[in-house]
Design brief:
alpha/beta, Rossmann fold, Dihydrodipicolinate Reductase, domain 2, ten-stranded mixed sheet, amino-acid biosynthesis (chains A, B), homodimer
Chain lengths: 429, 429
C-alpha cells in the first residue's frame, strides 16, 4: 500500500470536526477504498481553547492557516474557514503554490473567484475539489462533472438552501407568518450570522453559479444570477397556492438559451406532488436534465456535520486515489464567457391581487392581462364578507416574463387594486 | 491533448447504438471533458445487415467479438452483448488479458461472475466499469464507490426494474389485473424475451447483488438474494393498500445485520407519499443510507437508449481520464464472504384475509396473531353484501418475519378463512 495521504484541516467548525471524526472512525475503510491510509497531520482554527466534540490531541496545532497550507508534512489542504476572500483565498493559493491539492466547502469563494483559482490550480497540476460546497451530502458536483460527461446539459434546478426550505415548510405546516418563523429559525441557530445570505437567496445563488459553470462549460458568474430571497413570501400566498395544488420553493434554475445563459434563484411555484414540491424541511434536491440521460433527481441532506463531512471525504478519497480532474470538469482555459440573459423562457405565472368590491373591477384586470397578451388558465375569486376587498387568484397560461412585467406595471393604473399585485413564476419541473 | 481513446463496441442493440450516437454527436464535448478525443475504431454485432439507426460506415466491422476484444487498435472493449456467460464473459476476459479496459452494462454477468472478473482485471491493472448495469442513467455505482467512500453504508434500497414498476403503476391507475397488464407490457415490447427475468425479480436481484457488494465490501453473491417477483400481486391488494396510504413496489433491500447480510427483492408496501411511493412508470430510484451522509435518494430513467448510453459514456470518460479504480470500490482480494442471512429485521406487515361471515371468526384470527406475539396497529373490515365472505385488512405493529410466518401457517387451522392469507412487508423508507 502507498504512503499515507496527509491532511491539514483549516477550520474546525461543524464540518471540520465532522471530517476529523470520519478519519478517526473509518481509518480501515478509507485505506481500503483509497488504496492508502488517510491521516490528519495538523489542524488550525481561530480559537484553540474552544471545547470541540473530537479528540485533536494527535494533530499538530497551527495558529496560522498559511503555515498549515504550506507545511512540509501536508499533502492536502482542507479549507473549511469560509468567506469569499481574505484568509480562505490566500491560504488556498499558498497551498496550491506549495504543491498541495485543495479540498474546500467554500461556495462563496468559488462563486466569486472560481475561475481564477481553477486557472491557478490547473497551471500547477493541482486539484481543487468542492463537493461539499453545493447541496451538502448530495453528490451533485461529481454527478455533473463525471457521471453526465456524455451529456449536453440542458437545465439544472435545485432547492439548495435548507434554511429557506425549512422556513417555507414550517410556514405552511404551522400557518405562521414569515417573521415568526424567521425568528424561530434564528433561535434554533439555523441562520448564518448575516441571515440575508440565507433568506436573501445569496448562498443558494452561489451554489447555482457553480453548477451553471459545470453544466454549461462557462466561467462562473455569480453577478449574473438574478436573485430574489424569500422575504416577501407571505403566508397568504403559501395558503392560496396550496389550494391550487402548488407549493412555494426557493428554486434555482439555470439554462442555456439562444439569448444567453439564464440563472435565477427565486421563490417559485412547483406542483405539490412533484419531487421538488414534496421536499420538506432542510432537505436539498438538485434536478439535472441532459440530452441523453433525461432527468436525474438527487436528494439528501443539504447541510449538517455528517452529510457535509461525507462530501469533503469523497473529495479527499479522490485525491488519495491520485485523481485530479479539471476544477469545473473541463480545463478552465476552455470555459467560455456566457452572455448573461434575463429570464425569457415562458412559463405559467401565479398572480394574486386584492380588488375593490365594485362592478367592473375584474373586467378591468382581465383587459390589462389581455392587452399584455396573457391568457388565463384558471381564476379563483374568494368570498369577501367584509365587502371591502376581493381576493383574486389567477394562474396564467404560459407567457413571457416581459408580458408579466408589463401587466404588473399596468395593473395599478386600473384603480381597482388594493395594494400591489403578487406574482410568482410556476416552474415546469 | 493526448492520443485518442479508441473504443471497440460489441453489441449494437439499443444501448450500443446510443453510445455510437453520443460519440458522434458530442466529439468536442467529450474531448474537452476527457482531455483527449474519444473515437470508435470497430464494432461487432450478430447481424451486420440489420437496419440500425446510426451511421456505422466509419467503423471497422468485426464478425467475431473475440477479435474485437483483442484488436490492436482498441483501448477499451465495450461489452453490450449481454448474458451471464458465454461470449460476453469470454470476450471480456480476452480483452483484459490483451491489456484493454472494459466497460459493460451486463448485470447478469457481474452478479454471477463479478468476483472472478474483478480479480482478473485487478491482477492485470485494468478497469472494469459498469455504471449502466444498475438503474440505467442513475449514477449509483459512482455514488457508492466514490461519493460515499467516507461512509459506512447501512442500507441500500431500490426500485430497479422499470418494467415491474410500470406494471404495478399501470395496474393501480387503470384498475386492471396483473395478467392484463402483463399482456399489454408484452405487446409494448417492455418485457425481456424471457419475461421471468423481469417480473420474476431476477434482473432486479442481479442489480441488488452488485450494489450489496459495493455497499458492504463483500463478494457479490446473487444466490443469496431472497427473490420474489410481482406475479402474485393482485389488483385487490393494490386497491386495498391504497386505501391505507400505501403503494406496492418491487423493492430491493440490502443491509448488514449482526446475523449476516440480508438481501431481498420482493413486493413491499411503502408509504404512498414517500419518494419510493411516488415513483411511477419506468422510473428507477435508489436509496442509500450511510452513517455520515444520512439518506441519499437518486432517481432517473432506469432503461432506454439515452439514459443507459449516458451511463456507459461516463465510464468511458473515466477511462479516457486514465482513472482505474478497484472494480467494486475496494480491491477484490479484500472483499469478504458475507454470511447470507434470511430477513430478520422487524417490520410492520400488511395482511389480507377473507373471513367466513360467522360469529367469532375475527376473534380466532386475533388469537392466532396474539399467539405469534404480533400486535395489531390498524384493522379494517369491509362490507360484505353477499353475506358469505368478509374481507379484513390488518396492519401489524413491527414484528419479525418469523412471527409472520408462524401466523401465516397457523391461520388456515382456524377454519374461518376463505383462501390463503396474503402478507406483504411494509418497508421503512
Amino acid at each position: 500500500m502507498s504512503s499515507p495521504l496527509r491532511l491539514g484541516i483549516a477550520g474546525l467548525g461543524t464540518v471540520g470536526i465532522g471530517v476529523v471524526k470520519i478519519v478517526q472512525k473509518h481509518a480501515g475503510l478509507l485505506a481500503r477504498r483509497s488504496g492508502r491510509p488517510v491521516e490528519i497531520t495538523a489542524v488550525s482554527a481561530r480559537d484553540r481553547m474552544k471545547n470541540r466534540d473530537a479528540d485533536l490531541s494527535a494533530f499538530r496545532w497551527e495558529t496560522d492557516p498559511m503555515a498549515l497550507a504550506t507545511a512540509e508534512d501536508v499533502d492536502v489542504f482542507v479549507e473549511l474557514i469560509g468567506g469569499d476572500n481574505g484568509i480562505a483565498k490566500d491560504s488556498i493559493e499558498a497551498a496550491l503554490r506549495a504543491g498541495k491539492d485543495v479540498v474546500t466547502a467554500n461556495k462563496a469563494l468559488l462563486a466569486m473567484h472560481g475561475q481564477e483559482l481553477a486557472e491557478l490550480a490547473e497551471s500547477l497540476g493541482r486539484a481543487i475539489r468542492f463537493e461539499a460546497a453545493v447541496a451538502g451530502g448530495i453528490p451533485v458536483i461529481k454527478t455533473m462533472t463525471e457521471s453526465l460527461a456524455g451529456n449536453d446539459i440542458t437545465r439544472v434546478m435545485g432547492v439548495m438552501n435548507g434554511t429557506c426550505n425549512y422556513i417555507l415548510t414550517r410556514m405552511a405546516s404551522a400557518g405562521l407568518p414569515y417573521a415568526a418563523v424567521f425568528e424561530e429559525a434564528r433561535q434554533l441557530g439555523y441562520l448564518e450570522a448575516d441571515p440575508t445570505l440565507d433568506v436573501g437567496g445569496i448562498d443558494a445563488g452561489h451554489k447555482l453559479a457553480i453548477l451553471s459553470s459545470i453544466a454549461f462549460g462557462t466561467r462562473v458568474n455569480f453577478d449574473a444570477v438574478e436573485i430574489e430571497g424569500i422575504e416577501r413570501v407571505s403566508i397568504d400566498d403559501i395558503n392560496r397556492v396550496a389550494d391550487m395544488g402548488y407549493r412555494i420553493k426557493l428554486l434555482g434554475v439555470a439554462q442555456m438559451t439562444p439569448r444567453g445563459l439564464e440563472q435565477r434563484m427565486s421563490p417559485c411555484l412547483v406542483p405539490a406532488d412533484s419531487p421538488l414540491g414534496q421536499l420538506m424541511g432542510g432537505t436539498n434536491m438538485v434536478v439535472i436534465e441532459g440530452d441523453s440521460v433525461g432527468q436525474i433527481v438527487l436528494r439528501g441532506a443539504g447541510a449538517g456535520e455528517g452529510p457535509t463531512a461525507s462530501a469533503v471525504m469523497s473529495d479527499i478519497v479522490e485525491i488519495a486515489r491520485d485523481i485530479r480532474l479539471p476544477v469545473f470538469g473541463q480545463p478552465a482555459a476552455m470555459l467560455t464567457d456566457a452572455v448573461p440573459a434575463r429570464t425569457a423562457v415562458p412559463a405559467a405565472y401565479y398572480l394574486r391581487i386584492e380588488l375593490l368590491d365594485k362592478p367592473g373591477a375584474l373586467a378591468k384586470v382581465a383587459t390589462v392581462l389581455s392587452d399584455a397578451g396573457i391568457s388565463i388558465d384558471r381564476m379563483r375569486q374568494y368570498g369577501h364578507p367584509d365587502g371591502a376587498s376581493v381576493p383574486v387568484l389567477i394562474v396564467t397560461d404560459k407567457t413571457t416574463p416581459d408580458a408579466i412585467d408589463f401587466a404588473i406595471e399596468a395593473l395599478p393604473g386600473t384603480g381597482v387594486l388594493i395594494g400591489d399585485p403578487v406574482e410568482l413564476r410556476i416552474e415546469e419541473v
